[in-house]
Design brief:
alpha/beta, 8-stranded parallel beta barrel, 10 helices, globular, binds cytidine-5'-monophosphate
Amino acid sequence: MNEPRIIVALDFSNATQALNLTAQLDPQLCRLKIGKELFTAAGPSLVEQLIRDGFDVFLDLKFHDIPNTVAGACKVAASMGVWMMNVHALGGKKMLLAAREAVPPGTAKLIAVTLLTSMGRDDLDDIGLHEEPEQIVQRLALLTENCGLDGVVCSALEAASLRQLVSSGFNLVTPGIRLGDNRHDDQKRVTTPSLAIKSGADYLVIGRPVTQAHDPLSILRQLNQTVQNERPASLFNA
Ligand code: C5P
């Protein structure tokens, strides 16, 4: 069995809703992402339960604080047994290095968010960042790689140019995926699973197209089929 490259975003406000969905999913076919909403509601016990149920968990809390605080948070997350966690690259080099030291290579995957995709040019100007978003994203991705982290979260539309810039083992984790049915929800710049993989994405974060589906498992099977057709598992270097 190939290792799953689909990460289902559990964007729920309580554990019951999350567990109702995960009972319909298969750990062979997906990993799970727990973000700030669900973690604030359900805490470490839900994370640990899902790990006991056989799922790999990406803890998406985007830590951003002084280096010592972020290192401490990362260490605790790793001790819960999560598969992947993330920090904000805007926290800077010292923070990224401290996080890496707290979660050594080969333990949990440690990735960074570069710029939030909700930030447009105007928002960046407001906070004194006057470059094009693409340039900032590229610089932060390189900083992240130079600090020894395992990858970045990026839009699939950024993945193709980042793939040229970073090494092949550096993971690109891409949200904003839609199944080609014209339903975008609140996502502005979306792409299909197949295009995301072609652009060099290693993992696809997919929320509502799976969580709101009538038959989530069948959508997941289709997604896995697409991913396998686009890139043979032998070329996948996770
Ligand atoms: O439901 P949907 O597929 O839009 O969910 C996408 C998930 O990826 C959500 O959990 C969202 O917070 C997350 N995400 C995103 N865009 C980013 C970073 C994370 O959509 N730039």
